[in-house]
Amino acid sequence: MRVKELAAWLEATWEGDGEREVRRVAPLEEAGPEDLAFVTRGRALKQASASHAACLLVPSDYCNEAQSTVIRTADPRAAVARVIPKLHPRAEPQPGIHPTAELGPGVVIGHGAFIGPLVTIGAGVHVGAGTSVCAGSVIGDYTHIGENCVIHPRVTIYREVKIGNHVVLHSGCVIGADGFGFVLSGGIYEKFPQIGGVEIGDRVEIGANSCVDRAALGVTSIGDGTKLDNLVHVGHNCRIGRHVVVAAQTGFSGGVVVEDYAVIGGQVGIGDKARIESRAVLGSGSGILTSKIVRAGQVVWGTPARPLKEYLEQLAILSRLAKKRPGVRKEPEDGSQKLP
Question: Which end of the chain is more exposed for a tag (fewer CB within 10 A), N or C?
Answer without folding.
Answer: C
